[in-house]
């Protein structure tokens, strides 16, 4: 039971990050490596501001910082004409030093003994189980951001982002500024990723400079797993599937590590195997459908 609750908490919080990955990877069709840096940026900003006594303001500041990071990547891509992957690598590399600067040249910041969003809400709701409070906060935040994004992608700008990912040339011929649309999308994407990092830092009670390593791959796995369970439908369901996929991914990780088969230091290996399988699912399904069609053709011949 404890395993399932812990996976639910982490899955929903990391689901915010999966929402950001969904925007850049699925809607905009851009593999944005800025995610590794913007996630840690959210942790760093949140941790520092929480230690200063502003845990709720820290969430907003993290979102703004993430949006700025995404905008820089968008600027490098659109105005400087740098390849999308190289542009995101440049931003990600620069953010490493920025994050260290924010954290006071320390590789980690502890929040032990500090008031976080979770402890403040717990103190105001005495008598209620702490796990229930954490679950309610995680569910509320993930559903709130999902709802806001669902509404946003039905607006003119949101539809322009979706159209740009489908057919950039057509959107450009419609007198829509594709460069601005891409930059806005990357800003929103990294804002969600930074928010996830901000909540994680307060949830776990510390921020570490290496926490964002591999975040993009984890986010991609969450998106793919979610699509396996919910299929390719509307953007609203697609965003929701990213959150569900993140929760399922965390549960799989927890189950794998709770067994005696894998040692604690095997987390990266387990994650890599799960991610590899998840990302291979579309190709596996395509091959299965191909061979099924061939068998049917032979029977009918």
TrEMBL record:
Is the Membrane keyword given for this protein? yes
Which GO CC annotations does the UniProt entry carry? plasma membrane
- Span-the-membrane segments of this chain are 7-25, 56-76, 85-112, 132-153, 180-203, 209-230, 237-258, 264-284
The yes or no answer to whether the keyword Membrane is present is: yes
Cellular location of this protein? Cell membrane
Q: Which domain of life is it from?
A: Bacteria
Question: How does this protein lie in the membrane?
Answer: Multi-pass membrane protein
One GO MF term attached to the UniProt entry: transmembrane transporter activity
Q: Which UniProt keywords apply?
A: Cell membrane, Membrane, Transmembrane, Transmembrane helix
Q: What is this protein called?
A: Putative ABC transport system permease protein
Organism placement in taxonomy: Bacteria, Bacillati, Bacillota, Tissierellia, Dethiosulfatibacter
């Amino acid at each position: 039971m404890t395993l399932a609750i812990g996976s639910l908490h982490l899955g929903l919080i990391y689901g915010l990050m999966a929402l950001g990955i969904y925007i850049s990877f699925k809607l905009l069709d851009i593999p944005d490596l800025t995610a590794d840096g913007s996630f840690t940026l959210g942790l760093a900003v949140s941790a520092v501001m929480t230690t200063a006594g502003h845990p709720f303001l820290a969430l907003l500041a993290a979102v703004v910082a993430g949006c700025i990071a995404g905008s820089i990547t968008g600027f490098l891509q659109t105005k400087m004409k740098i390849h999308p992957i190289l542009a995101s690598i440049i931003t990600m590399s620069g953010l490493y030093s920025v994050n260290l600067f924010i954290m006071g040249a320390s590789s980690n910041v502890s929040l032990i003994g500090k008031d976080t969003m979770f402890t403040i809400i717990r103190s105001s709701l005495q008598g209620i189980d702490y796990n229930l409070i954490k679950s309610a906060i995680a569910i509320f935040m993930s559903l709130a951001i999902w709802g806001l994004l669902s509404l946003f992608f039905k607006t003119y700008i949101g539809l322009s982002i979706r159209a740009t990912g489908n057919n950039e040339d057509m959107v450009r011929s419609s007198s829509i500024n594709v460069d601005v649309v891409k930059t806005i999308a990357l800003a929103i994407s990294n804002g969600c990723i930074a928010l996830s990092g901000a909540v994680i830092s307060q949830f776990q009670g510390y921020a570490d400079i290496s926490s964002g390593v591999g975040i993009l791959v984890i986010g991609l796995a969450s998106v793919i797993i979610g699509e396996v369970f919910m299929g390719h439908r509307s953007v609203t369901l697609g965003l929701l599937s990213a959150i569900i996929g993140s929760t399922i991914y965390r549960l799989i990780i927890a189950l794998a590590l709770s067994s005696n088969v894998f040692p604690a230091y095997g987390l990266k290996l387990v994650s890599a195997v799960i991610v590899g399988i998840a990302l291979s699912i579309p190709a596996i399904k395509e091959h299965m459908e191909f061979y099924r069609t061939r068998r049917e053709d032979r029977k009918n011949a």
